[in-house]
User: Fold this.
Amino acid sequence: MVPGKYISKMDLSHMLQDLQQCKAPEEGHSPAEPDTLLSRPVAEVLLHVQEKLKAPGLTTEQSGEILHIVEQLFRLGDRHWLFSECCSNQSTDLTREYVDFVSSLTLYAALPLCDNDSGTLPESSFEAIPARACVVSSVVLALVQRLGNGGEVVSSHCQATSWVFLTGPLAPLLCVFALTHMQEQAWTSEASRTAASNLLDSVVQAGDWETTSQLLFGKNNTERQPGILGSILEILQPDLKRDSWKRNQATKHVFAWIVMQVGRPWLTDYLEKVFPPSLLMSDDYCTDNQVLGVRCLNHIVLNVPAADLCQYNRAQVLYHALFNHLYTSEPQLIEVVLPCLIDFLPVLEKDPACTGLPRKPNRYDEVLRLTLTHMEMEHKLALRSVYAKCLEHFIEKMECRLSALVQSLLRLVCDLSTESIPPAVREELVTKATHCLLLLDHCTQGKLKMLLKDVDSSCTSTYVQRCIETVTMAQT
Assistant:
């Protein structure tokens, strides 16, 4: 057989005969004649393959032989026999048959389910998965490429099933399968990740989409080609419930990947489907799951309007869930929780720049106070480092208050110079106020020095002048 050429009827018959003989026939039955198999609808052949793959005692080598034959049928078989809804395939819903077939193939390479509460299995449980994923990827890649090839001639009186008709039900299945096996996890290898990635690219090309984003959201052109995001989320929903999301280790990673691809304005339309699972994962006792859930929540916060986040008490629930995480001692969790909280606070509170003076304490103060308290008491350097890095985000929100803070501190120093208090106490308070000004200058990268240059030194006390000189002469 020459690669790239379509196989003849005789070659196809031999392939089907090989497929029939991949496993010994049951007692009392004999293999069907090759020409008889060839005259049957392709749906029967696909069903035959599914039954063989489910047969007890089938070895990996035998299943590999079966799938290799099917791959060759897809790559080189007659398109009329494979896809035309007439002749031997008359009155057959080919779309449904191919969807069922692809579903069975994805199950062949599916991860074993986890029955314990941890939601994790030992790596040894996934030993056979990468090889199976590679084989399945090759088979469905051959199918997708043939469906996407519109240049082949089919009899004019025959209606051929094409990728356009299979996009709705088939592309979401293939996308979920590809995302399961293209991420670096315990159940993947370099080969399986490459195969899955190639499959996803092929789905995009065959559907006449230009990018994965178009695959998810659709095209905004006159044809209004819809995306498959809604269908993917429908597939994932049964495995994202409170009692099921830990059974398949890949589901949470597929879900997170999908969520991260969805930005404005599309994410708002799917908020009811992505918010509960993200919150569920962030509420878990496992740190890795918590981090994954918080990352999803942060993406939602950044890509959904505040008005939608505040509906149905979502905002209050989210704030309390994030705030409670501040009591953890896991650096990797704090590292994602604090930025998420800072991004989320504008949903609940007015912008600090828009509030008057004096102002009432709010959630900005609540979060900052707890962060500083934990940072001061924390003895783990890794965790203190995370707190320190996150303070930069707070400074960006405090910075608009720089002038007010400076005025308050200088007024304090001025009052100390006229109050009748013990000299030692006065010196200590002036020193601490000066230290606060130095910190403000450092946090604002020298902006405080510029403000202090406008202070009229002739109208200030000695203590204030000394304080200003200390700040202006210090290295930023």
In short: The chain is about 65% helix and 0% strand.
